[in-house]
What does this fold into?
Amino acid sequence: MESYSAAWRRFRENRAAVLACLIVAAVVLLALVGPLVNPNHGDALDWQAVAVAPTRLHAHWFGTDRLGRDLFVRTLEGTQVSLLVGLIATLMSLVFGISYGAVAGFAGGRTDNVMMRIIEIVSGLPLVFFVIVVGVLFGRGPVLLFVSIGAVSWLTTARIVRGQTLSIVRQPYIEAAIAAGAPPSRIIYRHVIPNLLGPVVVYATLSIPQIMLFESFLSFLGLGIQEPNASLGTLVSQGVGDMEAASWILLVPGSLLALLLVALNIFGDGLRDALDVKEA
Amino acid sequence: MHPALRIDNFSVRFERGDSSTMAVREVSLQVEAGECVALVGESGSGKTQLFMAAFGLASSQARVEGSVRYFGEELLHAPQAVLNRVRGAGIAMVFQDPMNALTPHLSIGAQLIEVLAVHGGAPREAARSAALAMLERVGVDEPARRMRQYPHELSGGQRQRVLIAMGLLGAPKLLVADEPTTALDVHVQAQVLELLQRLRQETKLALIFISHDLAVVAGVADRIMVMYAGRIVESAASGALLRSPRHPYSAALIRCMPSMRSPVAARMATLPGYPPRAGDLIAGCAFAPRCPKAQARCVSERPPLIADARGSIACHFPEAP
It folds into this structure.
């Protein structure tokens, strides 16, 4: 395996990936700091300025929606929620996927067989249907969204991790570790998992935008984040209603979402090329 | 007093679907504490598989039979906890492939310290200095710097020595060294052999040396066992075996050794043909097809391994000692 410094050098040479990385960082920073700096409040209704277009002349930089809420603050708060969903669901998929996949791959044989069949059964469930059922049973809300997306997205991670583990387990250094008397748990977390992180990190980076897009899709359908909270998806959904009269209500959150997704994807691709992971 | 290792009637079979291949056939051997035994044979003769399977390291398709006792304690089909206690602390293995036997993402120091950590005990600082001392002992230069380095920063010879250090760090009573010097320069090879000899005298370490190189083995081993197609065909004290081999295969191996006395221009002796594949069914002597002295009986009837005063031999027509 090559050292990470070589990977870092390759990443730096990839201009598009570096730019995408900077854009992601800038959007994250803006989403975190913006609502604090701006005098407007995301929930406050400004009846003096209902659905005004963006100008620099008044307090609402990106205009307001048709209830008079400041679109700048609302979009950034929505970005926070969207990023949070992406991060938490990815984190969940990493934790479950890595432990499940590594155990299956390391155990091999019948255990592996049963564990992989379970994954196939679960991944056979239609995702939207699953989210609706969970929502009906437990009520809608952001926590539920994390859980239901996370519960499904770990399946692919587990498959990738298992595949990697199968090839790592055949390496002589695993044999050497067994011969040195290391118990299976120690071998998994010290010799197997660190060696498969490369492809997993790449997959995770690429899955953040996918999950964000899926969250937006659910919110657009009204299944995701509920009023008065907003994610980029709910904002786009509201914007679509007023698209012809007040296009900015759609364009502001929509373009930020598109920018973020494109940047995250280019960043993930750059990471993949730098770490030299075959197919992700 | 039990011998350090006693293997009886040990067979290893690999089953894949409905085909099965015998890698090791009814091997029995015994190694006393402080003794050095060499196992010699061509590649594919089963010498590595014999010990991998004996210590529970063979793949899950392997079926093992017989008995493997370490100081009287049965290891075959023993629970995982027993194996983990014995492996590394009691029995250590040095693997033949120094390029891949170290975990790539851990520093040399971390991997050495892990051996001590796994077998409970030494506080971190003590483990560190023990690891450092062991690196020094196996002749790794700049041991303090090597501790911080990663496997890919070391040359093959250095990695081999790190592996030997790792094997010795748990203070084992039995060391199985699988071609430990194949990747090394000749002068380093001599150093490593000397180190193993010294340890053997100092700590009564039982040493099993797996090799295909009789020249390396000749200097270190008390006893040499010759393996062919999964069976031991001859064993004897190393001097006797090298001077007057009784099995035609041993004799052929010795003839193939380049000698300092032979004229430079002389053609080196080679052994024609190939060893049988592990899956082949052999009714008679496995070596018969390549044997210059083979007769009809050799093909039809397998010679049993007969023990006598000089060691043991499996041949219908052994050379006179």
About this structure: DSSP finds ten helices and no strands in chain A. Chain A has a mean pLDDT of 80. Chain A touches chain B at residues 1-3, 108-109, 171-173, 175-184, 186, 190-191, 194-195 (CB under 8 Å).
